[in-house]
Amino acid sequence: MRATFIHTADNHLGYEQYGMKERFNDFARAFLAVVDSAIARKADCFLIAGDLFNKRAIDALTLMQAKTALERLKDAGIPAIAIEGNHDRTYYRDGVSWLQFLCWEHLLILLNPYVRDGVPALTAWDPESQRGAYTDLKNGKLRVYGLPWYGAGTVRVMDGFARELAAARAAEDAAGVEYRVLLMHTGIEGIVPHMHGLPAYEQFQPLRGLVDYVALGHVHKHYSRDNWLFNPGSTETWGAEESAWDRGYFCASVDTDAPEGEPRHSVEHLVNPRRPFLRFAFRVDGVGTPTALYERFERKCHEWAREHAAELAAAQSEPVIDIALTGILGFDAAAVERERLEECVRSYFTPLTVRIHDGTRETEYDIAEGEEGDGRDRSTWQQLEVHIFQELLARDGRYQANAPQWARVLAELKQMALGDEKPADIARRLREARAELLS
Predict the structure, then answer these.
(1) Which residues, 6 or more positions from 76, have their beta carbon under 8 angstroms from its beta carbon?
(2) Average pLDDT, stretch 139-147?
(3) Residues 352, 320: contact at Cβ < 8 Å?
(4) In sequence order, what are the residues at sequence separation of 6 or more whose Cβ sits closer than 8 angstroms to the Cβ of residue 128?
(5) Are 219 and 242 a contacting pair, CB within 8 Å?
(6) What is the DSSP letter of 200?
(7) How far is CA 178 from the centre of its chain?
(8) Which of 42, 46, 35, 64 has its CA nearest to residue 7?
């Protein structure tokens, strides 16, 4: 059996980043590019490993974007198979998600097994109930399983699922199943330092030999392990810290008749077209006056523009520029004219938007940092921030038992606020954390 499938995740349709309609459209354009690639390659199926949408309550335009893309796949005869990520799931236990709506519209198959005591029922997807753990393609030779976002219960569900797969293996082989894909919305602990609570790679091992391709989502950074476990990364830049990460989608070619000992699939990671997102760090150490700062800043802008000239010339859209001011400032920070800095950036880059963050300090207190631009400054300060939150929470008896988890929630809420998320969405995230951590 030969087959080709596309694996994408974390498309986050509907994200109006920085309150800009152009960024809203960028996320749709990125997803459409992956859809068009699947059509051009005549893929046998299109797999979405969660977080098709950026939030659970989407508007009409976001729904239209999703329908337009999925209708293209349907017209091309390519079935879309999806699972819900943490951003997709409905707010209420008995509610209906927009992915379920798209399923009812026959635009995708939404895999969502019944689970009892942490054990998913290994039943085929039923078009009437629109529930089930798997669906079959290629005359039953290609089987796609799906496990949506389970949060803290992921490892328990994985273990139960592995036992069910092992028990059903002989019957599946007899039925003619030759290749198995598992969709999961989770990541591996340690890929991104400030993302905690994810399974370790060793905890995926019970699935070894039971599925041929583990298709992950959730972590926006591309990675793979042992030609078995694959995470494509997000299709657009959801956060500034992601700008340097390798991200995109996978195209997998399956050949179950490959010679014994040879891989039964070849997997290519592809980068879809997207808006350039450039992130820089500008150190202010040793600058004694605003005039000296502006002069150094302009020299740096000239240097950055020269370094990225080829990339920007090849791009078909204006870049997003994100600059962090770091180090110890030798004068009152109030004397810095932010507008003058932004105007300097615009004169060199012609950007869609400029984001300048003031991370300077006025004391000699410092912590270990990486070299300029190496990406370690932010993660170091995030760890310090979480540590401070944890110490404060540990003093309150109501939160003491789960202080580390609450600290990460507070850091997440802060980032949502800095990212111009709507207050209602921030409040909902807090309610979700309370429900989980206080239960």
Answers:
(1) 38, 39, 42
(2) 97
(3) yes
(4) none
(5) no
(6) P
(7) 30
(8) 46
Task: Please give the model's pTM, rounded to 2 decimal places.
Answer: 0.81
Task: Output helix, strand, coil percentages for the chain, rounded to the nearest 5.
Answer: 40, 20, 40
Res 94: pLDDT:
54
User: What value does the mean pLDDT of the chain take?
Assistant: 90
What percent of the chain is predicted at pLDDT more than 90?
Answer: 71
Quick: pLDDT tens for 319-362: 999 999 999 888 888 899 999 999 999 999 999 999 999 888 76
| Cα–Cα dist 15/313, whole Å | 26
Q: Which residue pairs, CB below 8 angstroms and at least 24 apart, start in 286-294? A: 286/330, 287/329, 287/330, 287/331, 288/330, 288/331, 289/330, 289/331, 290/331, 290/335, 290/336, 290/337, 293/336, 294/340, 294/341, 294/344
- Which token pair is 43? 């893929």
Q: From 180, 63, 183, 51, select the one nearest 112 (Cα to Cα).
A: 183
In this structure, the strands spanning 320-328 and 353-361 are parallel
Q: Work out whether strand 134-137 and strand 80-82 pair parallel, antiparallel, or are unpaired.
A: unpaired
| DSSP per-residue letters across 303-325 | HHHHHTHHHHHH-SSPPEEEEEE
Closest CA to 206 of 232, 150, 167, 153: 167
Q: Which two tokens stand for residue 111?
A: 């895999």
Q: Specify the pLDDT at position 362.
A: 66
Q: What angle do CA 161, 164, 170 make, to 5 degrees?
A: 135
Calculate Rg over the CA atoms of the chain. Answer: 23
Given a contact cutoff of 8 angstroms between Cβ atoms, the answer to whether 247 and 19 are in contact is no
Tell me: pLDDT of 378 over 60.
no
Question: Closest by alpha carbon to 49, among 86, 4, 83?
Answer: 83
Residue 402's pLDDT band (boundaries 50, 70, 90)? Answer: confident
Residue 141: alpha-carbon gap to chain centroid: 30
Q: What is the DSSP string of 133-182?
A: SEEEETTTTEEEEEE---GGGHHHHHHHHHHHHHHHHHHHHHHT--EEEE
How large is the average pLDDT for residues 128-155?
Answer: 95
Question: What tokens appear for 306 in the block?
Answer: 């020269």
Euclidean distance between CA atoms 271 and 246, whole angstroms: 8
Whether the Cβ atoms of residue 106 and residue 142 lie closer than 8 Å to each other: no
